[in-house]
Amino acid sequence: MFGSRIREWGPLDWCVAVLIVLALVAGGIYGGSKLLRRCDNGLSEIDGECIGVTTKSFEADDDIGSLLDAIAKENDRVASESGTPYVRVALMTAFTSGDRSAMTSDMIRRALAGSLAALEEANDGAGGPQVQLMLAPIGQQLDQWKPVIAKLDTLADDKDHPLVGVTGIPSSQTSTREALAELTARKLPTVGPVINASSMNFDYFFKTSPDDKEFANALRHYLDTYPQGKKNGLLLLDRHTGDVYSRDLMRTLKARFGKDYDLTASPSLFTGSSGSDEGEPGIFFDAVGKICNQGTDTVFFAGRDQDLPGFIDALSDEGSCTHGKPLRILKTGIGLEPTLTRPEVKRDLRKANATIVDAASFDPRWEKPGSADRPAGVDDFLDRFNEVRNKHTLGEKPLADGYAASYYDGLRLLTEAMKRTFADLNKGQDSEQLPTRQELYTTLSQSTVNSSGMLQGATGTYGFAGQDTNDRWSACKPVPVVEFPETRHDKKLPLYRTYDDGGCSRAAR
Q: Which of 9-23, 403-417, 449-463 has the highest mean pLDDT?
């Protein structure tokens, strides 16, 4: 072998070598450029994620790239129109996901789709300044908010294009509670489209979703209308100590149903998939054992939707189970997450003789014209949303979990309030004055119940009762109760509305 001659390269060999070198160089240039652009335009890399505030697209979850590009394109269009006044609103949320992240990739994608629909609607409408939507990623655990809020505070002082408000804040947990305290300290009006924990109350924080107490009232309304079984209850609780949502919901469920459904005993605990606590998620041996041995007929679920299919699967696998059949699994949430209505989950529910009963902010049936209790604002939302859906891949049942509709409403609340403020400021004026964050806060703090200021949103027609009333939770907001699989009843369930003392008139439709 060592005595063999080395073959000289021919023309073909040299061509192949040159092509390989060119490919490697091109790949290096492309990769280096991508790396350099990964967290630029106002963003910095922190713990492997882009954190900061920007009007541009950036590297995030793969399936939201086209949505980020569309928002960036709209932002560029607004900035390029010479002489047209514009303000800024920030979308402060997670743009990346992981195994234990606060939001799933689908939640992020649908939240962006709803926000894009609201942004395009705001900028197409007559009256008032145009809007740039600042993208403000705070990390998949929602804990990198400090540099972001500092930047938002600076942008709010911009005289030419002030930032007037913030929306997003997708989860009730310790880190977002701290972030909201800081946003209030800096007097930045903030809207929570999907916050439900009743303790998330701050002076500058307005919630367009129902709180856990109002969800529980809607469930009580349902149980009183459709009584069933011996009221043998079990409370199933996510054990994460930093999950404000689950803890608040547990306290509310015990207060509302503890006596009637015997929820005074210790709850059955599980480790949820969202959060950073150690422990193996998705283990439900204790819950299934108690349900089967104690004849439970009503489960009160205080956890995140993404963990419920695992519980239903574990329940269906227990062949000798003698729970109080049929079994109701009561939950609260923004909508009915698509993973809860897949064929395998429906099969498991049938096998376990169980039904999910969900007090929600959005009813997936509202997508269909003529459905019961359908809000007046749904058609306008669907017109915009369907344009977005035709251009972007949004996954299965993109309206079902209510995130698109809720984020649409959250941004619309800010843009509509901004336009009203702009109109009031410029009555009889020759020059145009842009609203500030404090002026927008003043508008949001006014009572709009049963007035022209009520928001005709995708999740209903509702308003706010003014100042500190109801801790800035929306009033007259519909709370539909959705069953899966759907059950036939001999009478219709009247629609429950939040904080309705009898004053929610026909205007709230």
A: 403-417
